[in-house]
Amino acid sequence: MKKFIYLLAALFVVTACTVEKTDYEAETTITVPDNQEFKEVFSIEKTPYKISVEALQGHLYQGYNEVRLRIFQTDANQVVEEAKATFLPFLTLSQGSKESCPNLYELAYQKQGQYYKGYTVFTKTSKEGTWQVLIQLELQGQKIELTQTILIEEQSNKNLNMTSFIGQDQEEYSIALVAPMQPKVAENALVAGIFKKNKTAVTLDQAYQMVDDYTLYLDPRMPEPSMGNHSSPNNRNLIQKEDGFYHGVVNYTMTGNWTLNFILQNQQGRILKGTKVPLDFTPGIEGVKSELYLDILF
After folding, report:
1. Which of 62, 122, 125, 276 lies 20 to 30 A from 13 at CA?
2. Residues with Cβ < 8 Å from 8, sequence gap 6 or more?
């Protein structure tokens, strides 16, 4: 009888693992391209200039996006290097109201690549309204203003997930993962942007601000029943660096479904969102997640 029970238990474990593995393999049909090229999203010609916007693979997604703007003077056949360039995405909702998102408004020129660099964290997709971007340029004594409708797609790469929430201080926050885009079974540099909605904003370019001197406590787990909600060693909490983003380390010990459990603490030491995850190893039971988390898959 005992042998029969053991056999049933073993069969259950094997079946459970097989089901989980099958689901995992189905999800991983969405792959992250190895060659991360910046390609043109759109371009506009405003004589004598051609202005183009680039993003990874030529697409813009919900979550963090690095954006690059190039200005080319066609009659002189040269790149314009000394312009003041601003980049402002905004969403028009069905009722006609407008909102923006976390965004680097003034772009910085990168001489080596000959482009103006910024970033935008799109909080919603184009399914929820019409996204447009307003580009304003000051160059060679001229002022140019351009507006272009853009498509914001759902983020297929879970390693660039984001979340928005109301903190214990009743402020609205967004956390967006920046890196790694392609994790490895190793210790990975983990980078995130933490933004707070500006309730007193007068203009759309002031809609969000990056928070300073917060701490994002990290507890990565594999929450699936077959994985027992186990964690990994040598992880480091995320703290702010000079670039304004929050940097830490996440150690992925194997491929699969992971959850980044977070606790967000402000500069005064107040917990704004997140709960501790139980330390128990729970094979056969789905792991408990923090009140604040992001799911990862690689």
Report:
1. 276
2. none
Query: 223 and 123 in one domain?
Result: no
Last-in-domain residue among 153, 188, 212: 153
62 in a structural domain: yes
Nearest one of 42, 58, 50 to 74, comparing CA atoms = 50
Name the residue type at position 187.
E
Whether pTM > 0.90 for this model: the answer is no
Coil/strand/helix, residue 47: coil
Domain of residue 190 covers 157-297
CATH number at residue 121: 2.60.40.3340
Contact 152, 55 (CB under 8 A): no
CA angle 96, 131, 159 (to 5 degrees): 130
**What does the alpha-carbon distance between residue 24 and residue 70 come to, in Å, rounded to a whole number?**
40
Residue 12 is inside which H or E element, if any? Answer: helix 2-27
Mean pLDDT by 10 residues, the chain (298 residues): 40 38 46 74 95 97 98 94 97 94 98 97 97 96 96 96 98 98 97 97 95 98 91 97 98 96 98 94 90 94
Measuring CA to CA, how many Å separate 160 from each of 69, 123, 137, 157, 295? 22, 12, 30, 6, 10
pLDDT, tens only, 178-217: 999 999 999 999 999 999 999 999 999 999 999 999 999 9
Question: Using alpha carbons only, how large is the chain's radius of gyration in Å?
Answer: 22
Q: Can you read off the two tokens belonging to residue 191?
A: 């980078």
